[in-house]
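Comment thread on ticket #2218

A.B. wrote:
> Attaching the input chain for the structure job we discussed in standup.
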Amino acid sequence: MPIHWLLLISLLAAAGLMMLIERTGLRTTLVLNFKGDVKRETRWLAQYGQALCTTIAAILVFQLDPHGPRRVWPLLIASFGASLVATVIKRLTGRVRPNRPDAGKFLGPSLKHANFRESFPSSHSASAVAMSAILAADYPRAAATFWSLAIACAALRYVLDAHWLSDVLGGIAVGYAAAVITRAALGIG
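C.D. wrote:
> Ran it. Output below, let me know if you need it in another format.
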């Protein structure tokens, strides 16, 4: 899986541009209120790529694919690696989530977990994209499904006001880079 530098640079540039726009005070969040089945379904989609979903996907790959054992490790490494990298960046930057006091401000490093100040980058988006990139490369016939799930997850992080758009774009960049680096490090084309 070759890295597409233009894509990665575009994602990072878009994230930076959105941060500048968000800092102006211009309203960039949606503040939507979902109810009933729509609320439940969106919460399910927003968890795509997270620990349980990734673990179940790895189990299915192991069980259903004759090359499963060889394909499970890149999936787990890229997905959990993307989440770990995003978490480290979150703790270093300390960006406050939307609709919170001091929303959008970068409070700086902290070793302590504090959800309100762990907005940038979106680790949900990062792990969803990492998982989809690995799965799409291994199972190209289902690539559209994997990418649709990752995009839905990332979009919902913004739509549900869990993150700023720049956080989501940054998370997508982290996830994409994690997948490419994982495949390269493991010698997978």
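A.B. wrote:
> Thanks. Noting for the ticket: Residues 93 and 108 are 5 Å apart (CA to CA).
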